[in-house]
Amino acid sequence: QVETLKEKLLEQAQEISRLRSEQGGTDAEKHRDLLAAENERLRQEMKALEGELRERQQQAPCRDCPHLQENAELQEQLSQLQREAEETRARLVELDLEVQQKTNRLAEVELRLKDSLAERAEEEERLSRRLRDSQETIASLKSQPQQIKYIIKTVEVESAKVKQALCETQSRNQYLQEQVGMQKQVLKEMEQQLQSSQKTEAQLRAQIMMYEAELERAHGQMLEEMQAMEDEKNHAIEEAFSRAQVEMKAVHENLAGVRTNLLTLQPALRTLTHDYNSLKRQVRDFPLLLQETLRSARAEISQAIEEVHSTNRELLRKYRRELQLRKKCHNELVRLKGNIRVFGRVRPITKEDGEGPEAANAVTFDADDDAVLHLLHKGKQVSFELDKVFPPQASQEEVFQEVQALVTSCIDGYNVCIFAYGQTGAGKTYTMEGTAANPGINQRALQLLFSEVRGKAADWDYTITVSAAEIYNEALRDLLGKEPQEKLEIKLCPDGSGQLYVPGLTEFRVQSVEDINKVFEFGHIKRVTECTNLNEHSSRSHALLIVTVRGLDRSTGLRTTGKLNLVDLAGSERVGRSGAEGSRLREAQHINKSLSALGDVIYALRSRQGHVPFRNSKLTYLLQDSLSGDSKTLMMVQVSPAEKNTSETLCSLKFAERVRSVELGPVSRKAELGSWPSQEHLEVLKILLGDSPGSSAPAGRGHASPSPGQLSSRSASIRRKLHTSG
């Protein structure tokens, strides 16, 4: 109730201030009051914001919370409100100064008004006196003219001196009349000023009386309200005192009951004290027990973790061993079935791929299996399993290490085909040809062949010939011939073997690495390459490097013929992206047509159709020997990891999986025995076939039979050579 009375007092004080402002407040004072109210409102809003800010700060902070931004906005609003409050305070101070100045000026004006009123009263008094004097003078002057007339009438016959005095008197009379007129005008003006001053004075007195009455009324109301508040306060105090007495009485009664309860609860308190002491001892000993328990638990957990780690390591070791065994068995199964082996190679991201999301890497690899890669296409991950996958950081040497076993089997009389497949710009030419400083499969294969030939030079005679051709716009051209524009044809061998050959294709016999470099340089110059939007040096034809290895075992007369076909296919491309026009467009159409024919052949082989359309394209017709089961075939699929090329990469990898499932059957070795010049070779052959050297085979004329020791040593040597070559 006291607070309510204080609020009423505050409201009455505000009402008095309002009445004062309505009675005599200037515009500046009103503006100041408005600013003070606005300042108070801003202060209350600032306090509310500060309270809300403190509540938010007391809450647990969280990272990435959506209220942090709201908190920052509230802090910014708080700082803005504080600046506005400061500006309002400054303006309020200025207005206080202005009000003070105007109050001082008003006091000065009031003093000057009082002085002017006093002076006006004195002036009115002086004018009244002058008016009375003027009236008296006028009255006296009114009475004088008769005498003057009379004198004039009586003194008309006076002398000239009297006439002069009369003129002077008349002029003086005229001057006095003028003075009287002027005094009348001044008197009229003074009367008007007096009337206006009286009106102003009356208005001021009326206002003062009204203000005094209003102040008296407000003072009376305030006294009444203060008296009422005093009465209410006394009444509230009396009521509070009476309630306090009642409550005190109840407290005394409760205290008596509590004392009684305390007397009854003392035994229970002693029991609780004893229990509390025992619990306190247990709590004091609890950290030691907890530490011991935690120590034993940590030891058990560490032991369990170590056992799990050891088990995991053992399982990982077994898994890797089984993975290697599975891969070995798979490779052996592939060899027995004659499947086409498929290796994948992912090129690095280059500056030609650009920047931004389109150049992001969309290909990932399996850390535990080097034959699996994953492609992220349109937000979905697609997995592919090949025979081997080379990541972008794989070197040319690492790639060749995986294919060199196939290359060396060419020396033993097997046909081998290695071809690179993929979209344009995927790195096929780099893998097959490489650079001068970092050569590819072609040059490394020939170097390996020379190395193997040198290692067998003691027992074998080898001849290595190289041919290079390209299929450009469905026309087969000789890259090593004198007329590269001459079109060649593919025909069956006349010996009835069913194999294909190209009549008129130039063959160079190579005997050293220098010969290889000359052949490669000569063939590379004549190959067709052009610039497109997808590749600065795009191959516009399918390039074939045909290496023929013919061997003769001088001891047994065994002849072997192996052929190594190294094919660099032109890349598939979308005409809309490559920007091919004119002749480039015609080249792209022929390239895509031949690659489509290759896909048809793979589909027919995979579905075991009776007819395989090898003759639909020069490319498939030339690769018929490599795809018809009489060759060891390896496809190196080249893919781009860039996000913008995921569609082409997906198509290439799907085609690679289809090729990997094709079974060509077991591979046959091209080997034949030459003429046997002596009985010694017949004996050796019998030994190899399991016959005894002392059997009844007829001896040749003019030749002595070899001794059993010589035959056994020669047979061992021949078996070793055949084992090495086979």
Give a verbal description of the structure.
By secondary structure, the protein is an alpha+beta fold. The chain is elongated. It has 15 helices and 18 strands. Helices cover 62% and strands 13% of the residues. The model is unreliable at 147-158, 533-537 and 675-726 (pLDDT under 50). The strands form four sheets. Strands 1, 5, 6, 7, 8, 9, 12, 15, 16, 17 and 18 form an eleven-stranded mixed sheet that branches. The chain has a three-stranded antiparallel sheet with strand order 2-3-4, covered by helices on one side. The chain has a domain at 340-574 and 585-661: Kinesin, CATH 3.40.850.
Characteristics of this structure?
single chain, 726 residues, alpha+beta, Kinesin, eleven-stranded mixed β-sheet, three-stranded antiparallel β-sheet, disordered C terminus
| Spatial gap, N to C terminus | 118 Å
Can you give the mean pLDDT? 77
Tell me the CATH superfamily of the domain at 340-574 and 585-661: Kinesin motor domain
- Rounded radius of gyration (Å): 63 Å
The level of helicity is 55-70%
The level-1 CATH class of the domain at 340-574 and 585-661 = Alpha Beta
Give the helix tally. 15
β-strand amount: 5-15%
